[in-house]
Amino acid sequence: MTLRITEDIRSITDLKRKTNSVLKQIHETKRPVILTVNGKAEAVLIDAKEYEKITNAFGLLKLLIPAEDDIDNQRYKEAKAFFKDFKIDKEI
């Protein structure tokens, strides 16, 4: 999803005048559109399905935070040792 500055940066005025074409562009390209006010970025429009994908990905990343903390604080086992202990605990 590479931004194309000549196509994906639009003014709020452009959005007001050409709403359907901006929405069509977002749906077809799956790229976000950056909206500007007085030449400065103000907001980003993104396809709803792409937004869901992004929020799901962030949700998964949040699950990794405790694991990273465990690694930073050396609260982990090597896989071989873990499975050895697991088999003993479960009497496998």
Structure description:
- This protein is of the alpha+beta class and 92 residues long.
- It folds into two domains: 42 residues, YefM-like fold, CATH 3.40.1620.10; 42 residues, no CATH class.
- It contains five helices and three strands.
- The longest helix has 25 residues.
- The radius of gyration is 23 Å and the shape is elongated.
- The model has no long low-confidence stretch (mean pLDDT 94).
Helical fraction = 55-70%
Order of helical and strand elements = HEHHEEHH
Radius of gyration: 23 Å
| Overall number of structural domains | 2
What's the number of extended β-strand segments? Answer: 3
Quickly give the structural class.
Answer: alpha+beta
Low-pLDDT ranges: none
Per CATH, the architecture of the largest domain is 3-Layer(aba) Sandwich
The general outline is elongated
- What is the number of helical segments per DSSP (H or I, 4+ residues)? 5
Numbering strands along the chain, what is their spatial order in the largest sheet? 1-2-3
Which fold name corresponds to the CATH topology of the largest domain?
Answer: YefM-like fold
End-to-end distance: 48 Å
Residue-averaged pLDDT, rounded? 94
CATH H-level homologous superfamily name of the largest domain: YefM-like domain
- Strand portion: 15-25%
Q: Regarding CATH, which class of the largest domain? A: Alpha Beta
Q: Tell me about the biggest sheet?
A: 3 strands, mixed
